């Protein structure tokens, strides 16, 4: 979800409503402790109705603790989420993300260091394991080191996003914990979300919310009208134009649209049309034509 759960998406989710909490895109602890210009731009706050957590990643306990302290003292984020599940090779090579699932002493040191540096609510996201399941051990360590909740993407790092998430394992994981367990993986429909919410304390929805931005609201019992989609794509284009320079707008719109069309009839032809667009206004016009407001 890096590059996607940016201010644009979070502002849209907040305006639509229904989401219990929002999590930022991954923020490098080293960049934050050094106050890198781009990093500081990425964490810039904005008014929301929905609590926002900032998601930090890294492998250096000291850097993560310093970053968490900055978040606590200088921002309005409601909590901190530690990413220990990202499978992207360039992240894993540094020992961060799901790389920490191979180094449990360091994983423990990271959680403990961040816990000591902040009083904000602290959550940690992991996968089932790196190449074999060790989630009972990792989640127990996370609880012992003071996290307030743990989220599990129910795949191994080695799975990437292939195959089906192994939701059959949540019972054993939950029985092993005293802190809340959040489940993640393959939540693309309302029916699936409601089914899985009976097995965990909460669910995390990523790609599913990009495919259907109204999914959180639907979980609360609200209906989605066809005209809501027209309003969404128009607001999406407005926010992209507001927050990104011209040279980045088309790429951003394509990135969001890649998921948006997953849930729609005729998605293959739509994707081709959008991805062949040569400029932002052309793609924006096609979306507005495809998703009428009435």
Overview of the structural elements:
With 294 residues, the protein is an alpha/beta fold. It folds into two domains: 7-219, Aldolase class I (TIM Barrel); 226-290. The protein contains 15 helices and seven strands. Strands 1-2-3-4-5-6-7 form a seven-stranded parallel sheet. Helix 13 runs parallel beside helix 15. The longest helix has 18 residues, at 226-243. It is globular and about 55 Å long. The two termini are 31 Å apart.
When the domains are counted, the total is 2
- Give the terminus-to-terminus CA distance: 31 Å
Q: Percentage of helical residues?
A: 40-55%
Number of helical runs? 15
Under the CATH scheme, which class of the largest domain? Answer: Alpha Beta
What is the H/E string?
A: HEHHEHEHHEHEHEHEHHHHHH
* Secondary structure tally: strands: 7
Strand content: 5-15%
User: In terms of structural class, how would the helical and strand content be classed?
Assistant: alpha/beta
Residue ranges: pLDDT <50 for 5 or more in a row?
none
Mean pLDDT: 92
Give the CATH architecture of the largest domain: Alpha-Beta Barrel
| Biggest sheet details | 7 strands, parallel
Radius of gyration: 19 Å
Short description:
This protein is an alpha/beta fold. It has 15 helices and seven strands.
Question: What layout of secondary structure does this protein have?
Answer:
Elements: H1 7-16, E1 22-28, H2 29-33, H3 37-42, E2 52-57, H4 61-74, E3 79-84, H5 89-92, H6 104-117, E4 122-129, H7 135-144, E5 149-156, H8 170-175, E6 181-184, H9 190-196, E7 202-204, H10 207-211, H11 215-219, H12 226-243, H13 246-260, H14 267-275, H15 280-290
Parallel strand pairs: 1-2, 2-3, 3-4, 4-5, 5-6, 6-7
